[in-house]
Amino acid sequence: MKILTGLAVLMVLTAGSQAFAASHQTTIFIEEQDTNKDGQVTLAEFDVERADHFKRMDANGDASLTEAEYVGEYEARLNKQLESVTDAEKKKEQYQRQMRQAKVRFGVLDTNKDAAMTFEEYQVSGHAMFNRHDADKSGIITAKDVELLTEQKKDKKGDDFVNP
Ligand SMILES: [Ca+2]
Ligand SMILES: [Ca+2]
Ligand SMILES: [Ca+2]
């Protein structure tokens, strides 16, 4: 229950700043996670990519992430994203807000609050995200899920979310 509450908080926290239509997010998700380029993402495929990403974040290789490791890797990606923002004030404001949120995310994902994020803790958010993209709950994310989420959006049933 505690985990579910945490994730709900996480989604509320992040929804304001980078909310996109769920269907659009799912298209991006497929583009980013479809490592064998067959146009769909299986849970196994996703897990391999998550494990890989976790390893990249784990700078000292002790199979656990500190806040500095988690936020540091995010900061590099954020700076890249912000390269296209030309307004210096805006850039600074977005940088500060996103970095603040990254720290909050770390706190939420570290469910047992020991200041270390294990792969298991990281995967709770990963699988929650996978399930939200997987609209027909088939265990594979395909163009059909994008269609379903687009339909839900039209009926105002869909909701927005971000990649944790
Ligand atoms: Ca694939
Ligand atoms: Ca580490
Ligand atoms: Ca922990």
Summary, kept brief:
This protein is mainly α. It has helices at residues 2-18, 22-33, 43-57, 67-81, 88-109, 119-133, 143-154, and strands at residues 41-42, 140-141.
Describe, in plain words, how this protein is organized in 3D.
The chain has 164 residues and is mostly helical. The protein has one domain (2-154). The protein has seven helices and two strands. The protein has a two-stranded antiparallel sheet with strand order 1-2. It is globular, with a radius of gyration of 16 Å. The two termini are 19 Å apart. The protein binds calcium ion (3 copies). One calcium ion binds at residues 34, 36, 38, 40-41, 45. Residues 1-21 form the signal peptide. Residues 34-46 form the EF-hand domain. One of its GO terms (molecular function) is calcium ion binding. This is EF-hand domain-containing protein.
Number of helices: 7
Structural class: mainly alpha
Spatial strand arrangement across the major sheet: 1-2
Helix content, binned percent: 55-70%
Distinct small molecules: calcium ion
Sheet with the most strands, sense and barrel status: 2 strands, antiparallel
Runs in which pLDDT lies below 50 for 5 or more consecutive residues are 12-19
For the secondary structure, the number of strands is 2
Q: Could you spell the SSE succession in H and E letters?
A: HHEHHHHEH
Task: Kindly give the count of domains.
Answer: 1
Q: How would you summarize the topology of this molecule?
A:
Blueprint: H1 2-18, H2 22-33, E1 41-42, H3 43-57, H4 67-81, H5 88-109, H6 119-133, E2 140-141, H7 143-154
Antiparallel strand pairs: 1-2
Helix pairs in contact: 1-5, 2-7, 3-6, 4-5
